[in-house]
Design goal:
The protein has 289 residues and is an alpha+beta fold. Helices cover 35% and strands 25% of the residues. Helix 9 (227-233) packs antiparallel against helix 10 (240-253) and helix 10 (240-253) crosses helix 11 (264-288).
Length: 289
Amino acid sequence: MIPAAFDYHRPDTLDEALKLLKKHGDEAKVLSGGMSLLPMLKLRLASFAHLVDINRVPGLDYIKEEKGTLRIGAMTRQATLERSDVIKSKVPILADAVPLIADPLVRNRGTIGGNVANGDPGNDQPAIMIALGATFVAEGSRERSIPANQFYKGLYETALARNEILTEIRIPMPPPRSGGAYAKLKRKTGDFAVAAAAAQVTLSAKGTVERCGIALTNAGLTPVEASDAMKFLTGKMPDDKTIAEAAKMAAAKSAPSADRRGSVVYKKEMARVLTARALKKAVERAGRN
């Protein structure tokens, strides 16, 4: 299908982009990579009178470490993340996920900011950011920081105001004896997940779980933070029995919808299986660090 008519704006600065959003309000939408937005427009699932393309805005494409924080510019392409040695060494959970996003054509164009800011529960990186305890930086009338686990409010609904642009993702650098993993089931290359699970674990000197984050992709109207499973694991030895119980608790938190990818029962079972796999791999990596 052909999208409904819209006016196209291509600002050269962040300030110019913010002025356009303020001027056009609810009728405007930010365009970054466009890999989620454009298909929605073509299918007439969404319609905006004004698209504000921020690809010309400088200074939003970077990966850098600073004072114990990994800072990623919102316009950083998925392909850049995929090639980054910093991502591979510091946050392997993200390195796991990026090659599983769509296909090389999409990853060359798609951005991390677009992936996390669109509010699509089928996107992979929102759950990963929740598991990592990330924070999103938004620019509008002022700069503000939003924890990833407070960012998603509903289907395609986030904490971003209409006059705000997501500019940066900040991830706390995992301490020693930390590991993460992302496990995903999809039918074919380019498809969204049937189910997926992100797990990030830090072990104590005794080998117990000191801190953990668990979140699920495509398990509800928003990414699902498995808070009950996280509390259950904390302070315990991450053996097979404990991980299996935590995986059951995570799956119980999910609320997927039946579709051509599977029934609700099947998807919840896959959430359990994938959570267990992600946790086991995360623990293995943590033990090697």
